[in-house]
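Consortium newsletter contribution from the modelling node. Members have asked for a concrete example of what our holo predictions look like. Here is one, prepared for the magnesium ion complex that several groups have been discussing at recent meetings.
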Amino acid sequence: MNSRKLMALVNKELIHYFSSFMGYVVLFAFFVISGYFYYLIMVESHQASMQPVFQTMVFILLFITPAITMRLWSEEEKSGTAELLKTSPLTVWEIVIGKYLGVCAFFLVTLLPTFVYLALIIANGSPDYPPLVANYLGYILAAMAFFAIGLLASTLTENQIISAIIAFAMLLMLWVIGAAGDSVQGPMGDFLKYLSVFQHTGDFFSGVIDLSHVFYFASVIFLGLFFSVKILESKRT
Amino acid sequence: MIEVKDLVKTYGALAAVDRVTFSVPQGAILGLLGPNGAGKTTTMRILTTSLSPSAGKAVVAGFDVVDQPEEVRKRIGYLPEIPPIYGDMTVINYLKFVSDIKEVPQDKKANRIGEVLEMLSLEDMSRRLIGHLSLGYRQRVGLAQALLHDPEVLILDEPTRGLDPKQILEIRKLIKSLSGKRTIILSTHILPEVSSTCDDVVIIDRGRVVAADTVENLSQRLSGGKTLEVEVKGPAAEVEKALEKTEGVSALKSLGNGSRGVCRFEVTTDGSNDAREALFQCIVRNKWVLYQLTPLGMSLEDVFLKLTTKETAA
Ligand SMILES: Nc1ncnc2c1ncn2[C@@H]1O[C@H](COP(=O)(O)OP(=O)(O)OP(=O)(O)O)[C@@H](O)[C@H]1O
Ligand SMILES: [Mg+2]
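And here is the predicted structure:
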């Protein structure tokens, strides 16, 4: 991994997001939706926690992720720029990690308004800090897992719409698989429930950092990136 | 510098590249000439490691494209068929991005970008979005990208496509000036482009090499001369001498000796008259036996018919 090359790739992704209509639609959606839920929840519950906001945002992220990730590789393939990346002195891992960090960097921007809510919470009460950290960690890990899946979907096709549909289908699977687990008995049911994303966000949002949940998200991220690399490698033939 | 041997790329039943063999010595410019669908782009993709071959071997800048692709990538500049540009970047930002991924030394980056902008007369466009540029300017940005890290091998797929006549001449001059230190392969379906720019030429059609020669020899073969395959039963050395002296023969190449004292030659005629009669007389006079006298190069002519042979039609 060469940091100069990674930075260049991340920067290129950011330039793209901030010069595309879709980038601003996504930012706007994040700002408005998170603001609206923050307002509703704070006014209603007077809780000094980010939990309700993030719990809702994770769910919304499930729908927004495909719009953010669909272009990641599909567009390079379609426009012919994939040839530049593939014939430059870049490893496939550098390409994949660069793109992945690019979308994560864009996501960080969507977190900006939550810092305003955070400041308001801190100003209006004396919140416990460790649970707030757990809230953020859970939300960020879930988002990063979603993006790894979206990136994988994007390596599968040069058509952005199909890429978005595949990403959405895969994310939906990770959600509904929990419900399937509820209706199956025994270890199989437990396993299906284990795969579900929402099984692993709950503890974070109640303010607890459990390493087994961190491990789950890290695994999803790793597998997403690993298979993206394998698919791009197989495309040379 | 570039060695291609029995290269094959198949797509299902179609052989897009079919046992292609050629080599380019260091510092030379090779023109890859062929009609649409000949396999030029496919060959270049293999040479630049973006595609792996089905069979055969290709060595670029001393490294095998299959075994050591990373080493090859460091040493090549590649202009793909579709310029690999990002419409939402400015020309300058794009070239900065390319310098970073192509390992242009940090302290030389700004200088090098300036040089390349100047080479391609892009200075006035540097702050514009690539997506807003005209076709010809986009092509030039694509070329700038290939030259940026000053690679020892340049592989250019139809470099003058989309350019206006003045730019075509300038880019050709630029390409010619780059050779010497660098080894260059360019593809085209325009015959005059090869004769004005290249040292050697490889003509391919439907995946196969139809002719590989220096530009000089090729133009001679084109200027009316025909190629014949002659198979004679007789003492090879004497036959060769006699055929060479026959009226109307401009060049002769031995194709090897078969069994039972039969030898084969490729005879190029000067095109002034049909040399077949003279060749036949010569063989009979010497009491050798004529096995075969076949006009070759028909396929070459076919290919030429499909090529753009006039500059204006390009
Ligand atoms: N991915 C692919 N799948 C199937 N067939 C392909 C693929 N890529 C190329 N081909 C086929 O391989 C052959 C050679 O194509 P190639 O692009 O190399 O031709 P070319 O010489 O570059 O032609 P042109 O002058 O039109 O650019 C064509 O018949 C083409 O249809
Ligand atoms: Mg082509």
